[in-house]
Design brief:
heterodimer; A: mainly beta; B: mainly beta; six-stranded mixed sheet; five-stranded antiparallel sheet; 11 strands; 0% helix; globular
């Protein structure tokens, strides 16, 4: 079955620690995205990548970093510089950046900072 | 099949005018309707609507959802040249985001 997987489902972090959220897709999509969702708010774009070895900042990139070494994988690192990291993180992919009109997204990771 | 249809597809107005953009949808598992503004990169979030009849407002922009009519509108008052962009209506379903075709809005000085 094709799809997007994210892990872990729940993640707890102590203040000052970096954590990495995994996102893998087997849809053969070129473009991948990371969003953050806070209660009562829509998805806000953190980073996106249109092709391997390329990624761009979204609207709220500060305190986050990404890499795109393989087409299937787009991990997100939440660094200690992110002031308010507790949120629900969604990864998505689309066939290309131009074809953003239909993005499939994974089940999400809920990050809680203790 | 989930579907989002926006109208008009293109709109050209003069600075200072008020515009209304329309979005209608069909969906099996509605979670929310999102409005985005797209300029030269991936879309920027504007509003999320989940309940009918409650207007969301941000400056000169406002939006409202009508679940009975399966539609939403985005209003922009006192338009400025910086409002020129593609405005996207996006449906958040059970495990999918479905984007409309977008309305290309051009504001002439």
């Amino acid at each position: 079955d094709g799809g997007i997987t994210q892990s872990p489902k729940y993640l707890f972090r102590k203040e000052g620690q970096n954590v990495t959220l995994s996102c893998e897709q087997n849809l053969n999509h070129d473009a991948m995205y990371w969003y953050r969702q806070d209660p009562g708010q829509g998805l806000r774009l953190i980073y996106y990548s249109q092709i391997v070895n390329d990624f761009q900042k979204g609207d709220i990139a500060e305190g986050y970093s990404v890499s795109r070494e393989k087409k299937e994988s787009f991990p997100l690192t939440v660094t200690s510089a992110q002031k308010n990291p507790t949120a629900f993180y969604l990864c998505a992919s689309s066939p290309s950046l131009a074809a953003y009109n239909e993005q499939f997204f994974g089940p999400g990771t809920r990050l809680t900072v203790l | 099949e989930d579907k989002v249809v926006q109208s008009p597809l293109s709109l050209v107005v003069h600075e200072g005018d008020t515009v209304t953009l329309n979005c209608s949808y069909e969906v099996t598992n509605f979670r929310s309707l999102l409005w985005y503004k797209q300029e030269k990169k991936a879309p920027t979030f504007l509003f999320m609507l989940t309940s009918s009849g409650i207007e969301k407002k941000s400056g000169r922009l406002s939006s409202i959802l009508d679940k009975k009519e399966l539609s939403s509108i985005l209003n922009i008052t006192a338009t400025q040249t910086g409002d020129s962009a593609i405005y996207l209506c996006v449906l958040q379903g059970a495990q999918k985001l479905v984007f409309g075709q977008g309305t290309r809005l051009t504001i002439n000085p």
